[in-house]
Amino acid sequence: MENNEYTCQMLNPGDGLPCRSYIRPKDPAEPGFCSQPEIFRCTEAMKSKLPFISYSRLTDFIACRRKYYHGVVEGLQVKAEHLPEPIKLGRAWDAFIRNQHDPAFDHQADIESLLLSPEQAAKLSALMRAYRDLDIFVNKEVHLGCQYKIHAPIGTTNIIGFVDRAYGNSIVETKLSTRPDFYQQKENVAYQLGTYFLANEAWEYGVMEIVRVPALRTGQGR
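Structure (tokenized):
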């Protein structure tokens, strides 16, 4: 086989595989992986079959193709301790809310893995205490599940996503932000919710549960 700039330099066909380093994916719709330590996705397999794409990954691709390449093709991930505070708190809050609707889910393990700073832990603790004290209603009618996976094939593209909570005719997305007003603007949530609606025609509407990140203040009388 003649190599060129578009052919993997480590390509070594054999053993009934497209390459001896090829690792078959669990999902046959995915392109597969490479056993070489410096490679994540099989770039040869991606010529005919692209990885699933999520709304967040699509946003990355539109904003910065290099960021998409590092995350999807190279498989690079930021360690928990180096994640920005908004992402850490958002993931921690998602874990807590999931536990409220699915008590079998161990939210403490997820939160501990984020390695929150004392200040971040204080903010999260305040929110959890307020949530419990307010005795907020938990809807369990026709509850399809938390982190409900959706799959919407469009042409040659496979779109996937995870809905925070899915019900028979609606979905719920939980957001934790210092700017709650951002998610109150329809144009800022339409594309994400629209992506989810593609997967299930029975979903008639979406609910955005928005929580403001508490601010820590110091000073006399505060």
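Residues 22-73 form one domain. The CA atoms of residues 71 and 78 lie 9 Å apart.
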